[in-house]
Amino acid sequence: MTYPDQPPQHQPQSLQPPTQPQYAPSQPMQVYAPAYLVPAGPRNSGTAITAMILGILSSFPVFVSWIPVIGWFTPLLPLAAVIFGHIALGQIRREGLGGKGMAVTGLVLGYIFLVLTVLFLVFAVVLGAFFLAAAGSAGSLS
Fold first, then answer.
1. Reported pTM
2. Residue 80, Cα to own-chain centre: how many angstroms?
3. Which of 96, 95, 107, 110 is nearest to 48 (CA)?
4. Lowest-confidence segment of 13-27, 49-63, 86-100, 102-116 by average pLDDT
């Protein structure tokens, strides 16, 4: 039974899904060039990496200088960074290795913290001498 305001009911003609209309492509298919490998740059110098790591570690003596034995050797970190940085720059120049930026970073940080270490040691010696002189003059007053 059908009512006048209902659309007519259709029986499925087949169980196959309806086909979609084929449209012409709006753009021609693009063909891409095959991918190519970029040659790797020169390998980095190990001494340049070491110089940079030592230069970065030179900023930490403030935190570890109070530890016995470890703290005694922390003033040597900036010196080692400078030495490794100069060795690395020579090696990079001779052998054509990469890592010049790391070597320069190690050198700059090493020199900065070497100057700060020397200034700190000079300040400590002057301050110690001042306290010794003050203690000596205070002892002679009594």
1. 0.63
2. 20
3. 107
4. 13-27
